[in-house]
Amino acid sequence: MGKVLRSEFLKLRKSAIWLLIFVSPALSFLVGVGESVEDAPHKWELAITYMAFIHALLFLPLLTGVFSAFVCRYEHIGGGWKQLLAMPVSRGNVYIAKFLLVLGLIAITQLLFASGLILAGQLKGFEEAIPWKMIAVSLLGGWIACLPLAALQIYVSVAWSSFAAPLAINVIFTLPNMLIVNSEKFGPFYPWAQPFLAMVPTGQDGFGAMNVTMETLLLVIFGSFILFFLSGFTYFQRKEI
Amino acid sequence: MNELIIETNQLTKKFSKRYAVENIDLKIKKGEIYGFLGPNGAGKTTTIRMLLGLAKPTKGSIHIFGKDMKREKLNVLKRVGSLVEYPSYYGHLNAYENLDALRILLDAPKSRINEVLSIVRLSNEAKRPVKGFSLGMKQRLGIAAALLGNPELLILDEPTNGLDPSGILEIRELIKSMPKEHGITILVSSHLLSEMDQMATQVGIISKGKMIFQDSIEALRQRAQSKIAIKVDQTEQAWRMLLSKGRQAEMDNNQIYLPHTSDEEISTVIGDLVHDHFSVYRVQEEKKSLEDIFLELTGGEGSL
After folding, report:
1. Distance CA A136, CA A131 (A)
2. Most Cβ neighbours (<10 Å): which of A145, B42, B251, B278?
3. Using CA atoms, how far apart are residues B77 and A87, in angstroms rounded to an integer?
């Protein structure tokens, strides 16, 4: 497993993906700086909510798709799959390694997002202390909420040799997020909405699916993650290269 | 030397209703250069994909190094180097990094990268991104990748595809040298018979998914038996005369053909012809080329 990860990392390290991880944190940072929270009592909560509108509602699901498609792309275009799978490596390890890379990239994006948040808060001179715990819960929640989506996207990306098709699907399903997070019924079950629901701090004044408890959300997330991951994993085991 | 490196038994691959490969029994001995021949679309690549575990056989078994591919795939693949169909590469990496990504998986030492690069003469291009490589260079990089793990068995699918004549020669010499120097067994596929003629020791010919010939290259050459063609002025009468004397003559193309016989026989036939006042214009030996045999075996649909 270690060998496969090292090899995958080598392939990824030299690619252009690193530019993309800055996009969302940078834009969220601008939102964080631009939004007016002067009179609000919970400035950090408010800032993170505003920033999450951009980051978690839109970019995080999109990036999850891009990352997944990307780690498969260089295998598809150069005929890498057949060379890679004719090596003494198990298909399972290859699939898991690709998945871990995606999770790693999302994790880095989340950390950058946090830096953006803290920087924005400092710039605007929030007098409250930095709520580390809330930030950590939000980041980790967002990251975990990306699991089902990442599993789904990597499945699609492995199956289709096209780079654009999985992304197009991803965009189509990301766009209705705005509406779906308002629905208490469907929101928690929609993989593209889960990152936002998990990242926004839950409070009294939530709306729609945001009133769903964290426990329920996590249960749904892990359930669907296992389902999607195992489907993709089995598919890849049987795939004819 | 009778140890079988590759042995398949009734290997079959069916795509929906069409048989891509049907009941193939490959038998490849240690140290051989096995030429796997067939027209395009005959099932060569499909067979090779199954050998490498990239595709699952519909039926039949594969043993490599005497091990069942179904159960010991990874142990087998450790000792196999391969190049399937067209070369695989990561365009955003340079040649060295391409090989490094594979070397890690094979647990080979770093020094091996420069070794294989120099074998395929890419040492000077090692630091260039592979997306700028010509097809021939990518092909050589693919061969370098196949050699990376010091394999005991090399499976090369159309390795000279896209190479220029000097590149073809180079690769051919490389392939020929390997069994001698390192005791490597090689399975090399091609749709070009002439290429196989110059390097293979064993030949398997596949057509429409079926193995139609499997033997040594000499056995194939022996099929190329020559005929004696005789050109005379009145072909038909001469032919009837020879038939009446009990000769196995055939008439075709306004010429008389005799099966290959001894010099004395020929001289008797000529004597008879001259005696009956036929003018003999030409007597020549006509050899069937390997191409002819190949076309004959594949039913004429093979493009060479």
Report:
1. 9
2. A145
3. 6
Nearest to A241 by CA among A46, A54, A57, A95: A95
| Mean pLDDT rounded to a whole number for chain A | 87
The minimum CA-CA distance between B104 and chain A, rounded to whole Å, is 6
Q: What is the tally of helices (H) and strands (E) in chain A?
A: 12, 0
Across the strands, what pairs with B4? B29
Q: At A109, which amino acid appears? A: T
Domain assignment present for A173: yes
Q: Is the pLDDT of residue A56 over 60?
A: yes
Q: Report the DSSP pairing between strands B33-37 and B185-190.
A: parallel
Contacts made by residues A223-227, CB under 8 angstroms, sequence distance 24+: A224/A148, A224/A189, A224/A191, A225/A147, A225/A148, A225/A151, A227/A148
The token duo for B123 is 């040492």
Q: Are A3 and B91 a contacting pair at CB < 8 A? A: no
Going from the C-alpha of A35 to that of each of A46, A48, A60, A207, the distances in angstroms are: 9, 11, 20, 20
For domain B4-79+151-222, give the fold.
Rossmann fold (3.40.50)
- Tell me, yes or no, whether A51 lies in a domain: yes
Q: A86 vs B145: CB contact, 8 Å cut-off?
A: no
Q: From CA A164, how far away is CA A112, in angstroms rounded?
A: 26
Assess whether pLDDT exceeds 60 at residue A79: yes
Would the CB atoms of B104 and A3 count as touching at under 8 Å? yes
Q: Where do the structural domains in chain B lie, given as residue ranges?
A: 4-79+151-222, 227-287
- The dihedral built from the CA positions of residue A153, A157, A163 and A168, taken in this order, carries a sign that is negative
Q: Which of B84, B100, B142 sits opposite A10 (nearest CB)?
A: B100
**Beta pairing partners, B61:** B9
Residue position matching structure tokens 């005369």: B241
Which residue is associated with the tokens 């993709």?
A232
Residue B218's pLDDT is 86
For B231-243, what is each residue's pLDDT tens digit?
998 888 889 988 8
Q: Is B284 helix (H, G, I), strand (E, B) or coil?
A: strand
What total of structural domains would you count in chain A? 1
Helix runs in B148-249, H state only: 165-182, 193-199, 217-222, 235-244
CB B56 within 8 A of CB B14: no
